[in-house]
Design goal:
single chain; 287 residues; alpha/beta; Rossmann fold; three-stranded parallel beta sheet; 11 strands; globular; methenyltetrahydrofolate cyclohydrolase activity; purine biosynthesis; methionine biosynthesis
């Protein structure tokens, strides 16, 4: 029997409907339109697709989106000055700098230069610290989307044994923090973890965010477990490009109780939560 499919496209449409309602309310009651400024440096094809999708979905939700495109050779000073301008623009409620940046630019400096109240990616050190200590903050979009997806299968996560495979600042660590807030028992597995297969096999929920194509197979998954696949990897199949996750979907779907697809799973939820964060930022900036 195949696992329940957790449809990220359908769920993201529901979230975006909520966002559109909030946007309309802000317009009617406060005469403001939540505005997202997206900064893209260089010509990375994947980043251009991501930015285009974010701008499109923002406009569909009735928001305003502004795309700033800089040359790959732009200096740190030029980028910092643009962010400073956006920080001080009262019409801009959210700022997103598309990562990765060209190697000569300092990611950490850029992230720290965004005002925490406009940091809709949730990467600023102050927002990271607030999340870690359980205080209200802007939460990274991908983990936030994963939590919404998990709620479709597990309305109450208390006591669940969860393994997060991957320890990145963007997904792994904030994912673990959100799961801890939901009263899960959480293990973060990474490249130095011993007996990683056995850890996953004992988990009620596995979140795969390791960035390796089809890394996790059915031998790692407990029958009936929930699997959230964050990975997006391009592989060659018979001379054609195919997108796959960090999980071997075909084998794992026959073992798991519920699973997210790639594509059409976590990806759409990430964009929906970005716009959700932007409306939240706009509301907070009214105070």
């Amino acid at each position: 029997m195949m696992a329940q499919l957790i449809d990220g496209k359908q769920l993201s449409d529901q979230v975006l409907q909520e966002v559109a309602s909030e946007v309309e309310l802000l317009r009617a009651e406060h005469d403001i339109v939540p505005t997202l400024a997206v900064v893209l440096v260089g010509e990375d094809p994947a980043s251009q697709v991501y930015v285009r999708n974010k701008v499109k979905r923002a406009e569909e939700a009735g928001m305003c989106s502004i795309a700033h495109r800089l040359d790959a050779e732009c200096t740190q000073d030029v980028l910092n000055k643009l962010i400073d301008h956006l920080n001080n623009d009262p019409k801009v409620h959210g700022i997103l700098v598309q990562l990765p940046l060209p190697s000569h630019l300092n990611d950490e400096e850029v992230i720290a230069s965004i005002h925490p109240a406009k940091d809709v990616d949730g990467f600023h050190p102050l927002n990271v610290g607030a999340l870690a200590s359980g205080r209200p903050s802007l939460v990274p979009c991908t983990p936030q989307g994963c939590m919404i997806m998990l709620s479709q299968v597990h309305p109450d996560l208390s006591g669940k044994n969860v393994v997060v495979v991957g320890r990145s600042n963007i997904v792994g660590k904030p994912m673990a923090a959100l799961l801890l807030q939901a009263n899960c028992t959480v293990t973060i597995a990474h490249s130095r973890t011993q007996n990683i297969e056995a850890l996953c096999l004992n988990a009620d929920i596995v979140v795969a965010a390791v960035g390796r194509a089809e890394f996790i197979n059915a031998d790692w998954i407990k029958p009936g477990a929930t699997v959230i696949d964050v990975g997006i990897n391009a592989i060659d199949v018979d001379g054609k490009r195919k997108l796959v996750g960090d999980v071997d979907f075909e084998s794992v779907a026959r073992i798991a109780g519920a699973i997210t697809p790639v594509p059409g799973g976590v990806g759409p939820m990430t964009i929906a939560c970005l716009l959700l964060n932007t409306t939240r930022a706009a509301k907070h900036q009214l105070a």
